[in-house]
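Same chain as my last thread, 85 residues:
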Amino acid sequence: MSKSEVVPDRVLGRWAGYLDGARQIAADVLAPQAEAIDRAGALPADNIRRLAEAGLLGLVVPQKYGGLGAPGTGLNSTPAFGVHS
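reply #2:
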């Protein structure tokens, strides 16, 4: 699934890099561990660290609260990131 299939490039703008980062982490880190994470019922701290380092945890948090303030035009939902296909 390409990013343009979910959110048009004109909407993504500067946020496209975050989309790519989310896909990369989902494919390389989260997907291989999905069953173990489901069984444990918790996301490992290292995975949370990776998400934070990629800037994904504060992506849709308004800037006035210290986040990046990404627009809510679909970017705050997992399907928009295309991490599940």
